[in-house]
Amino acid sequence: MSGTDTRAGNGTPRGGGDAAGPVADADPAAGEPTARLAQGLLSRHMTMISIGGAVGAGLFVGSGVSIRQAGPGVLIAYALTAGIVILIMRMLAEMSVTRPDTGAFAVYGRLAFGRWAGFTSGWIYWVGWPLGLCIDAIAAAQVVHGWLPALPVWPVALVLVGVVVAVNLASVRAYGEMEFWVVWVKVAVIALFIGVGIVAVAGLLPGTPAPGTGNLLGHGGLLPMGLGGVVIATSSAMFSFSGTEIVTIAAGEAQDAAAAIRKSTRTILWRVTVFYLGSLAVVVLLLPWDDAAVGQSPFAATLTHLGLHHASTVLNIVLFAAMLSTMNSQVYASSRMLFALARDRDAPSLFARISRRGAPHTAILFTASLAALCLLLQVFHPTTAFGRLVDVTGDTVYVTWIGIAAAHLVLGRHDRAEGRRPLPGTAVWLFPALTWATLLALLALYAVMIVLPESRTDAVLALALTVAVALAGLWRQRRHPDGHGARIPLSAD
Q1: How many other CB atoms sit within 10 Å of the CB of residue 170?
Q2: Cβ proximity of 370 and 130 under 8 Å
Q3: What are the tens digits of pLDDT across the range 395-435?
Q4: Which of 103, 307, 395, 437 gets the most CB atoms within 10 Å of its CB?
């Protein structure tokens, strides 16, 4: 393990970059010129990327499932998950400021535990993205189909995939710009929703009496499903928060990675609290949690209750924007992780190629091609096995976060032993106690998923997938022990 590695996702020491395209540098491992990813992300891009990762389509859709599982106790479930997310992001921020790298947590796992850990973390993280891109493309196309019924779902889905692929191929700056403006739509509408909700809860909205605590406590109490419901809802909430780590993947292409990460980390506490807990508090205060409409679409049900006409149209626009943002980030995150794996000789070297615009074009096209294939198969030959596969790969968010916490324990201790203190605004509080607490909480939640009948199958299959990939990583490490820090020479096509 080397705690002093300062590589920046491009085979070079961290520092400034050229936003215009790849730059030739000397690779210390290979002794040959390499090309690096364009560092074109500005601070405002990084801020919106971090918000977009934290506030996805899961808030608008997945929160209804969580409310059915826990009732008003969903607030406890999301508060617990938010606490874990905040600590995970602090860990990533602390490691990313010291070692900004496109491979992010896969690189940190490699540095902490060896090549097999980076191999496992990277591939487990990547494998779910093509499936997720396929699902979100179909969902976004269904929204468009609702607006324009003459348009079939599958061609629209393919066009949407093509749009986000074109944006990512253009440049990392184009990705950042698209994310910046699309996320603004989500933020504005959520803020408006919470503002109107507060007015209604206070009894100041004409035609809507103040609900008091009747909906919060009057339908079976705060925990109608008991603590078990809270635990199950916490697992569901985990998936809503997945994507928050993308900002640290983007650090390798930021013009000032340290400043951008510190700013994102400092604001994640209020962002998560306001957007998730604030909006869900409005829902469970204004409506009974066991209302069927709340379980299906909590935001639409709330706006309908408030007598706001055309609420469904507004929410569909926001949902479409959220899905487009998610698809944009899915292409970005998956291609960068595949690029990092190839760069570190854990994936075919083909995926380490960089275009003249500084984008890993082969990794982008490969991931998008798999998503398009999955889309066509699901449209023309739908099967329940596909849904199971999506659920299994969704459970691997636990694997990613457990790996981050474990790597932070090792690298955090190493850095502190070497006298390198974390920068203000990025350090994990009470290290290593809170890192240990986060790791144990994640392991306990995953154990509960295995115990509970409704989540057992997917959790066991996800664990089996992780073990299989880890064994492949160990085998590869034994066959190529010199590959721990090796880099392949990269070429600009």
Answers
A1: 15
A2: yes
A3: 888 889 999 999 999 999 988 888 777 777 677 888 899 99
A4: 103
Whether 257 and 93 have beta carbons less than 8 Å apart is answered as no
Please give the span between the terminal C-alpha atoms of the chain, in angstroms, as a whole number.
33
Cβ atoms within 10 Å, residue 366: 19
| Cα atoms found within 13 Å of the Cα of residue 246, Cβ hemisphere only | 33
**What is the rounded CA–CA span in Å between residue 463 and residue 368?**
26
Q: How many CB atoms lie within 10 A of CB 32?
A: 14
CA separation for the pair 235, 441 (Å, rounded): 11
Model confidence pLDDT, tens digit, residues 49-101: 777 766 666 677 668 888 888 889 999 988 988 889 889 988 988 888 877 77
pTM, full prediction: 0.83
Cis peptide before 432 (omega within 30 of 0): yes
All domains of the chain in start order, with CATH: 39-481 (1.20.1740.10)
Helices 172-201 and 153-170, packing angle to 10 deg: 120
Instruction: Give the C-alpha distances (Å, rounded to integers) separating 458 from 321, 387, 392, 398, 451.
Output: 29, 11, 5, 12, 11
